[in-house]
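Suppose you are handed a protein chain with no further information: no name, no annotation, nothing but its sequence. What can you learn? This example shows the usual starting point.
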Amino acid sequence: MYDYQTAMQMKKTLAVLAFSVQMVSAQNMAQKLEKATKDLMDSSGALASSLSFYVSDDSGNFIYEYQGSKGLSTASTQKIFTAGAALETLGKNFTFTTTSSYSGSVSGNVLNGNLFISSNGDPTLGSWRYEAYKPESFKKKLTEAIKKSGITKITGDLIIDDSYFDHQTIPGGWPWDDLGNYYGAGVWGLNWRENQFDININGTDFKSFSYPLENVKWLNDLRTGGSSDQSLIFTAPHSNVAMINGMLPSGKTVTVSGATPNPPVQLAAEVQQWLKESGIELSGKAVTNSQLETEGKQVLAAPKSNMLMTYQSPTLDKIVFWFLRKSVNLYGETLIKTLGKEKKGNSSFKSGVAYLKEFWKSKGINPNLINFADGSGLSPQNYVAAKAEVQALLYAKKQAWFESYYDGFPVQENGMKMKSGTMKDTKSFAGYHTAKDGKKYVFSIIINNYQGSGSAELQKILNVLK
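A reasonable first move is to predict its three-dimensional structure. Written in structure tokens, the prediction is:
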């Protein structure tokens, strides 16, 4: 005879036993993590270091922490906040748009007016990362659109309308040592070739550029010696003087990548050349709206009518993939400006960062744990706690856009899928891991002022989760 009460009691007993096993397992894991963490923090390299570490299971149940609420400079694990907010706020199918239009009128084959190119800050315009979006693709679509309209002569100017965002292209707090290097590229209303250029250098001699840089003069303080690239490029937004110093190996050619000081000016020069190659005569000059403003001339916004071409970027999920996978700082700061513009009507970094903080506060993260300074983590003025990073990862896991988010996380040297962050005296990891026994963990670990790279040491701790 079936005894309902006995069956229910057995069910409760089994549930208690399962819970007890889970508790013992979590305690064992916490003890192992505690030992590994203590070993690191007792080492000589960590004498003056700060560590923030937090681990939960994938349901959010606490496993272990070491100063989990301590705010530290994050480096690129900051990107997990920007990517999640962008996917939810803008949508994974969001695209940026670049257009070409004209003012005046077309009579016969002559445009009696100006030709405009305008964008809402597409960071992928002319990027090499997407097969159908390389510079050649944009060139082909633009020149074909002009030819299709019948225009063979333009009596006015070629105007690059770079006015969508404000004039500040670099977030406050970025170190000067970073600004001229490719990873320190600024954000413009119109970006081009990811605002990056490459130089092939043999010894101290420039051999070639990936493309001719427009209006840039160089000061060269390079020296030779050593076995690796220890050079730094210094460029400032809107400046026509660039500097390079540091040391390169002698006797071989090395490729060094820098940040384009004025991408809209660069595009203007290239489009001017495209028109010439296509047999389209430009009577006026190639100029950007920022240049017109600095010259005290009237800024000419691109007309919304007389449209020749509309060029859409890859969808946001594809942009976020590369943002996380290759840690493209330009993408993060473009998303910050876009969020500020879309949600607050203000494209300043300050506005976008304020929205980012409001977004995560609304998801239950204590705002004292997320003192953001930018969208990419390059600023040492970001102070974020490991616990907040875990909370953001847990929130993302429950969202419809999670697959697009998770796909971007790289697999690191130790085989764990996690975003890394590297900056002077900062190393961090944040991500998800399924252990051999099937247990799923969500974690973040950040160390500042460690004397060494920190990467192997932090991975040694995280390997305990395997």
